[in-house]
Design a protein that fits this description.
The complex is a heterodimer. Chain A is of the alpha/beta class. Chain A contains 14 helices and 4 strands. In chain A, 68% of the residues lie in helices and 6% in strands. Chain B is an alpha/beta fold. Chain B is globular and about 50 Å long. Classes of the chains: A alpha/beta, B alpha/beta.
Chain lengths: 369, 245
């Protein structure tokens, strides 16, 4: 069975070891991306720089400002004396939120009228303004209940208790790092195989190779197999670095995760092989690979929730293997679910692998034209 | 009478509207050094690539070592050795790794592999300490010899050499041709393309091609006469001028 596979496999490994670019893509890229995404991407916006205009200067007003600050969403950077000063600070970008406590605030409170506190938010960045809005509403509601229940001499009538399961700290890395495994595999697996074949064509070594009795299957397997190992090593690196640097949990069965990852890796490698049949130069291969990776990052649910997308884009996202692999990654790593919850994704990924291998086999030719 | 090593009948290859090789018919007996001559673009490389199963013929037929290359391009490959115009080995592998790789790809195993590698390195005169060098660091002459060694590793019946000595110094060329002569004496059929007339003169027979056509076929002297020159070089220049008009 395929006697010429092992020489190809060995050769590919030796070349991999000697090629700086490939080594960089394989080892540097995962670590760099992990640190970048893990540290930089924080979707839970905290410590919004805030400027305060306290027109009443009373214990009550200071109390309400402190309540806002205690949520952790607002960081007081300045106290100002009039409204134009507050607006100027927000417009200049020194602060992204403003709290205005009016003169009549303590009087209204004391007389049982609705007391108003104004929160001004720079909403040009929707993500940060949303968390400010939510925090502000939360503070007001908590104060309302406190005051009402004290006045009525009874307990709060209704309390909705939200329990954030699976990621109780609502930490971004728990969401981002598992996804990063999938994004990295997509990028490197597709890119490395596409380049590995095209490089041989560019350097003129493919001509010498296909004049030997090596079969098409041996040639394709010889190009794919070494990189399966690379993919698994990359995945392990990100998972363990995520575990030890960012405290990302590894809840479920790692065996199951690796088994499904294998499907995903093979599908990605087959797609890379397919790309290599469409392009002539390494540069083109790189362009096509990056062109493919962009929708993967945007539409797969890696950073932006798919539920928020228009239906058309949800459908496009469903055509990407990564979308389904992300469900597997988060399902196993965060929620600890098993095959009973993920069989649909496994079927879909198997389908992708079969179709993509089929495409690659059909396009890949052992001739020069 | 032994069967010819190569037979082509009206072999034709078109690339779109361009016909690179037209109605080429020739026979090469085993053990002959056969030269393919002609200006650039005359169809030499396309002919060799078809005979190696790298390009599918558009029409006509060809058989190499008794195997029909259009019907069974893969079966012909274990019978032939091929050196492309451009250095086709892996420059990022060492000499030894290249030899080992090609021996493996041609199905040689264990002791047979080691013995054959020792044999071909001896044949091309490669010293053992050089085998640890990266192929990319070799001089042009050594690259050619290494490529020849890899093309010979499975003892092919027919050897195709596409401008094997382009860019190689005269001493290395002479060494290379000595090796070719040895191979032919041992029964290997050699098909070679070249632009050097002193090399063409060492072929038993040559085919002169121009714009995809076979213009003349025979011993170097016969071919020169057929085209109307005193030497092969005259013939070549006459042809080239005719092409350019």
């Amino acid at each position: 069975m395929m006697p010429r596979f092992w020489p190809l496999f060995r050769k590919e490994f030796i070349q991999m070891r000697r090629d700086r670019l490939t080594l960089m893509i394989m080892t540097g890229l995962p670590v760099l991306q992990l640190l970048l995404f893990g540290y930089a991407i924080q979707t839970d916006v905290r410590h919004l720089p805030t400027v305060v205009l306290d027109q009443s200067r009373t214990p009550e007003s200071r109390e309400i400002v402190a309540a806002f600050e205690n949520t952790g969403n607002f960081r007081i950077v300045a106290w100002v004396d009039d409204r134009p000063a507050l607006d100027r600070r927000i417009a200049r970008g020194d602060a992204q939120a403003g709290i205005v406590v009016p003169h009549q605030f303590p009087r209204d409170l004391a007389r049982g009228r609705t007391a108003t506190v104004q929160i001004i938010v720079d909403a040009s960045d929707p993500l940060s303004s949303q968390s400010a809005l939510a925090a502000a509403a939360g503070v007001a509601q908590a104060r309302n209940l406190e005051i009402l229940s004290a006045a009525a001499h009874r307990a709060v009538p209704l309390d909705a208790r939200v329990r954030p399961r699976y990621n109780p700290g609502l930490r971004s890395p728990n969401y981002i790092v598992p996804g990063l495994v999938g994004v990295l595999l997509t990028l490197t697996m597709v890119l490395i195989t596409a380049m590995a074949i095209v490089r041989e064509r560019e350097r003129g070594t493919l001509e010498q190779l296909i004049v030997t009795p090596v079969t098409k299957t041996e040639l394709m397997l010889g190009k794919i197999a070494p990189y399966i190992g690379v993919g698994l090593v990359q995945m392990t690196t990100v998972l363990f670095a995520g575990r030890f640097i960012f405290d990302v949990p590894l809840t479920g069965s790692l065996t199951l995760l690796y088994a499904i990852a294998l499907l995903f890796i093979v599908a990605s490698l087959a797609f890379g092989l397919f790309i290599s049949t469409l392009v002539r130069t390494q540069q083109q291969a790189m362009q096509v690979a990056f062109f493919f990776v962009l929708p993967n990052i945007l539409l797969s649910g890696f950073m932006f929730p798919r539920q928020a997308m228009p239906e058309l884009f949800q459908w496009i996202g469903a055509l990407l293997p990564l979308t389904h692999f992300l469900k597997v990654l988060r399902g196993i790593l965060l929620r600890g679910v098993g095959l009973d919850a993920l069989w649909r994704e496994v079927l879909i990924l198997t389908g992708f692998a079969v179709v993509l291998i089929g495409l690659a086999v059909q396009r890949f030719q052992k001739t020069l034209d | 009478m032994t069967a010819p090593a190569i037979v082509t009948r009206a072999l034709t290859r078109r690339f779109g509207a361009v016909t690179a090789v037209r109605d080429l018919s020739l026979e090469v007996p085993p053990g002959e050094i056969f030269g393919l001559l002609g200006p650039n673009g005359s169809g030499k490389t396309t002919t060799i690539r078809m005979l190696c199963g790298l390009l599918e013929p558009s029409a006509g037929s060809a058989s190499v070592a008794g195997v029909d290359v259009a019907q069974a391009p893969e079966r012909v490959k274990s019978h032939i050795g091929y050196m492309s115009q451009r250095f086709g080995l892996y420059e990022d592998l060492t000499v030894a790794e290249n030899l080992d790789f090609y021996a493996g790809v041609y199905g040689l195993r264990g002791e047979a592999r080691a013995a054959r590698i020792a044999e071909v390195t001896g044949f091309i005169g490669l010293a053992a300490e050089r085998t640890l060098q990266l192929a990319g660091q070799l001089s042009g002459g050594w690259k050619q010899r290494l490529a020849l060694a890899c093309a010979l590793i499975h003892r092919p019946d027919v050897l195709f050499l596409d401008e094997p000595t382009a860019g190689v110094d005269p001493a290395a060329r002479r060494n290379f041709w000595r090796a070719i002569q040895d191979l032919a004496r041992a029964g290997t059929t050699v098909v070679v393309t070249t632009h050097y007339m002193d090399e063409a003169a060492q072929c038993a027979r040559v085919a002169l091609m121009s714009s995809g056509h076979l213009i003349a076929l025979g011993s170097p002297a016969e071919v020169a006469r057929q085209v109307g020159g005193e030497t092969l070089e005259d013939a070549y220049i006459i042809l080239q001028e005719r092409d350019e008009r």
